Amino acid sequence: MTLSSPKPRPLIAGNWKMNGLAQALDQARAVAAGLDEKPAGARVAICPPATLLDRLSQALEGSAVLTGGQDCHVKTSGAHTGDIAAPMLVDAGAALVILGHSERRDDHGETSALVAAKVETALTAGLEPIICVGESLQQREAGSALAVVTGQVRESLPAVLAGQAFAVAYEPIWAIGTGRVATLPDIEEMHAAIRAELVVLFGDHGATVPILYGGSVKPDNAAEILRTAEVGGALVGGASLKASDFLAIIAAA
Ligand code: 13P
To answer: What domains are there in the chain, each with its CATH number?
Structure first.
């Protein structure tokens, strides 16, 4: 008899992207205070810009909020001006790292093969990767969204993820920062396709890996998105910058 793994708690992760000066720490403190008052069913993380990571981790120490990086280099040290190594994120208090975000894939030409290599580096450093996938509007309109995203899953997830803690985030590029959300049937269809890939790749473990949705998740649409089949959490951009909005999304999980 094989014991099936328990379903993990949903993960609600805030991606602050290139936003936030020292003042923004107050928003994170307010999130922690809110969760102290009313503990969440979900795991919660904030991924600030690298300049704030150390301070944010210290400010949130002992709270229910984890911190994470937004990227890491594939190497662990060396002559890579401007880049950040996975052990540096750990040193600054991070427990997680977002990898393969579409903004990294677009702005920095990151390929799925590079993302897979970064995932290995992150795991070795002890970080839990959130691996992002998602199609462009052109790809969706051409009818190739499912093929593109399942291909990204196959190519961005290395075999060493077997048995490790990680999450996949489905973020349709056209829904990011646009206020335009994928329809619930579209989310359900894509998450089911990603789940099927995960099971092929990782067997029983693949059946329990959280699949987050990202793209214009707001307090007023979070509950229905988070109730959708195979949605195991959310990766939240804009709405994670304001404590009250982020807390409302967390409460919906
Ligand atoms: P928005 O929530 O601002 O659409 O951003 C989504 C995202 O890209 C999170 O990684």
So the answer is: 18-69+142-252 (3.20.20.70)
